[in-house]
Design a protein that fits this description.
alpha/beta; Spore Coat Polysaccharide Biosynthesis Protein SpsA, Chain A; 2 domains; glycosyltransferase; Glycosyltransferase; transmembrane helix; transferase
């Protein structure tokens, strides 16, 4: 059993200074060993404000360019593993999320077997009552027959943990979760047993892909409902796949194809037949004047995703969302 509990928080931020202020305040109320903040070349004064904060636990990385969430976590994980050798675990989250008071104490009291390589906290919306749907942990339906058939009958609810699991006090073994309140055993990174988040993904699906990679490396992933985080995000409350700015559509669908490839294995061709038409049908949720842009982004996303081409620069993606037909 692992007894050490030197925990590092890794936070990625980009141009959300007011949210970051609350996040850092709540984070520093907990007993983290270090707090690493990756500033993704923010232009809203984040750099000046961060440099003015006085706390011995705080370590700031100012990136020269916006690396996206995936690149930011790649940089933050690498820094924690290489530059903070005393630390045993990290927990990551965005600049609009934060741990509730006592989260680190709850983590420290856990009895974690050595084969558990990562943990997922329970994540709620800012009121602390409603579950944040986009952060609900899940099983991989392609690895479990019950969840596979549950997906066919219930859709998303068939393979995500239910509300009863959130009310429990016992950890539950799951396959994936988001990077909000995701705890990673640092020794697994240092030893090369697992890698770093894939920076080329820029945003979206990097978290689930990363946790699935840890599972494929042989480590268990626990959902721990007694460790609570809050996330100021309304995505998926109405279960509609609508993204703004429109350039986010590209990353959503390109990276989902990579996620589906990893999660489904030999079933991937079947998944393509179901999912790709669904991508294009999402067009109906956008205003008519935006649909041509949506379709252009989706076409490019599918083409790059099928070829596993992750070389497109962010500036090129933004251009796809602004170019005239």
């Amino acid at each position: 059993m692992t007894q050490s509990r030197k925990l590092v928080a890794v936070i990625v931020t980009f141009n959300r200074l007011e949210k970051l202020k609350l996040t850092l305040e709540k984070t520093l109320e907990n007993s983290f060993f270090r707090v690493v903040i990756v500033n993704n070349a923010s232009t809203d004064g984040t750099d000046l404000w961060l440099n003015s904060v006085e706390d011995d636990r705080l370590e700031i990385i100012h990136s020269e360019k916006n690396l996206g969430g995936a690149g930011g976590f790649n940089l933050g994980f690498s820094y924690a593993a290489s530059n903070i050798p005393e630390a045993d675990w990290l927990v990551c989250f965005d600049d609009d999320a934060y741990p509730e008071r006592g989260a680190t104490d709850t983590f420290a009291a856990l009895d974690i077997p050595d084969d558990v390589g990562s943990l997922a906290a329970s994540v709620y919306l800012p009121d602390g009552k409603r579950i944040s749907e986009m952060n609900r942990p899940s099983m991989n339906p392609f690895w479990h027959f019950r969840e596979f058939f549950g997906t066919a009958g219930k859709g998303r609810a068939g393979f995500h943990v239910d509300d009863q699991a959130y009310a429990s006090k016992a950890p539950l073994e799951v396959d994936s979760s988001s990077f909000v309140g995701c705890f990673i055993r640092l020794e697994n990174i240092r030893s090369g047993k697992i890698g770093l988040p894939r920076s080329e993904l820029f945003i979206y699906a990097d978290d689930i892909i990363y946790v699935l990679g840890s599972r494929l490396a042989g480590f268990r992933h626990w959902f721990v409902p007694t460790i609570r985080f809050r996330h100021d995000c309304e995505t998926l409350i109405n279960q509609r796949d609508v993204y703004y700015p429109l350039w986010k559509v590209f990353y959503t669908y390109r990276n989902r194809l990579e996620l589906f490839r990893i999660a489904s294995g030999v079933f991937f061709p079947l998944v393509l037949l179901i999912k790709i038409p669904g991508f294009f049908l999402t067009c109906r949720h956008y205003p008519k004047e935006e649909r041509s842009i949506f379709l252009r982004l989706t076409r490019n996303a599918v083409w790059d995703g099928l070829r596993r081409n992750f070389e497109k620069k962010h500036s090129e993606v933004v251009s796809l969302a602004t170019a005239e037909d």
